[in-house]
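Re: your question about SMC-Scp complex subunit ScpB

S., sorry for the slow reply, the queue was backed up all week. Below is exactly what I fed in.
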Amino acid sequence: MTISARLVEAVLFAAEGPLTQQEIQRHSALEESVLPHLTALADHYAGRGIELVERGGRWHFQTAADLSYILRREREEPRKLSRAAVETLAIIAYHEPVSRAEIESIRGVQVAKGTLDVLMEAGWVRPAGRREVPGRPLIYATTGDFLSHFGLTSRRDLPGIEDLRAAGLLDPIDLAMESMESQALLERDEVEEEGED
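Result:
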C-alpha cells in the first residue's frame, strides 16, 4: 500500500464522521486526487470485518453488513417514528426538495410542526432553502445521515413501486386506488379513440 493510500486511510479512520472527497483531499494534503486511493481502499477492505463505503458522496468505515447483528449492543431503543413522520419522510425522500404545503397536498392532511422537528432532530431532514414563489416557503430535503442510516448510496437507490409491492408494504387500499386509476385511464383512452373514429 502506498504512503498516499495509507494517509487517506488514516484520515478516514481518525474522522468523527463520514467525509466528502474534498474534505479527505484537504485533510490529507495530497496534491494528486484521492479518488484512486479511495477506490483501492474500498477494494482492499471488501469482504473484511470493516468496509470502506461511500454513502451520499461521503466516505466512511462501517462494520460489514453480515457481521453487524453480532456486534449490536443492548441499548435503549429510540422512540419509533409516528406514521405521520414516516409518511412525511417518504414524501421528502421521493419528492425533494419539497415544501410543507406540497407535503400536505400529497398526504392530504396538515403536517404538524413537531413532525418535521422530529425528522430534523434525527438528522434525516434539513431545510434546503426557500422556493422562489410568492411567500418564499421553506423547502426540505434529506441528509447524508438519512442515506447512511438506510444503507443507500444515493436517492436513486430508494425502492420503486414494484419493490414496495413485492415487500408487501403497499396497503390494499393503495393497490385498489392504483387499479381504479389505471381503469379510469383505460376507459378515457377508449372514449378518445371512439371519438377519433
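The chain has three domains: 3-71, 83-157, 161-196. The first helix runs from residue 3 to 14.

Happy to talk it through on Thursday.
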